Amino acid sequence: MYIPDTFRESDVNVQHDFIERNSFGLLVTQSVTQPATQSSGSLIATHLPFVLDRSLAPYGVLSGHMARANSQWQGFADQDCLIVFSGPHCYVSPSWYETENMVPTWNYVAVHAYGKVEAVEDHAELLSILRRSVELYESSMPKPWTLGESNLFIERMLLQIVGFRIKIERLEGKWKLSQNHPENRRQKVVHALELQGDENSVAIAELMKTRSRDSR
Asked: In the chain, what percentage of residues exceed pLDDT 70?
């Protein structure tokens, strides 16, 4: 990912916090089965929920599962992969700066994780991955749903999915929040975003205010 130093976020804890808040990511690998219209080595991507375990490696380990009918898993075989985690984003109008010779831009936050992906088909490991995912995403529910004990329904479900595990080898964080502008311009952008009031604009405004406070 292209990251000017001004926008770089290298703190692993900050990156991990972001992944956990924005855990529905995009897994990108090379495909081993291409339609006739695609060349060998074309890319394939799947949108998936991920579970992060910070304690298993310096940069953590990601796990999850996908449908067995999804051909992406067939090409894992210790393959390099990229996982893209996207956060809030919004358009920034040059008119908000109230100065000349400005151009439009886009503010956003994202983390890219790199590593090797390993398919998990072992029954016990796959069931463990599934349970962890259910427990994580149900934990905030008023009445959390549980997977329950193994039964015929669960066994049939396990036959239809493939788990995966990714030991993260590198993390990149980009917090593009108008840091390349002076404080007075950033405050004007924050004000304009708050007036827009939509979820992404408000979230970016809050992140910009936090970055301004942290830089003092």
From this structure: 94
Q: Looking at the chain, how many residues does it have?
A: 216
**DSSP per-residue codes, 97-108:** G-SSS---EEEE
Place of tokens 């008119």: 95
From residue 29, how far is each of 4, 42, 76, 83 by CA, in Å?
Answer: 25, 9, 8, 9
Q: How far apart are CA 140 and CA 78, in angstroms?
A: 34
The CA-atom distances, in angstroms, between 30 and each of 23, 33, 35, 71 are: 22, 9, 13, 11
The reported pTM is: 0.91
Q: Which one-letter amino acid corresponds to residue 159? A: L
DSSP state at residue 8: B
At residue 69, the 3 state secondary structure works out as: coil
* pLDDT tens column, 99-116: 888 899 999 999 999 999
- For 10-147, list the strands marked E by DSSP: 24-30, 43-49, 51-53, 61-67, 79-92, 105-120
Amino acid identity of 100? E
Kindly report, residue by residue over 15-62, the tens digit of the pLDDT: 999 999 999 999 999 987 655 445 556 899 999 999 999 998 899 999
Q: In angstroms, how far is the first alpha carbon of the chain from the final one?
A: 28
Residue 32 confidence (pLDDT): 78
Cβ-contact 122, 65 below 8 angstroms: no
Tokens encoding 18: 């972001």
Nearest CA among 103, 19, 123, 111 for reference residue 61:
19
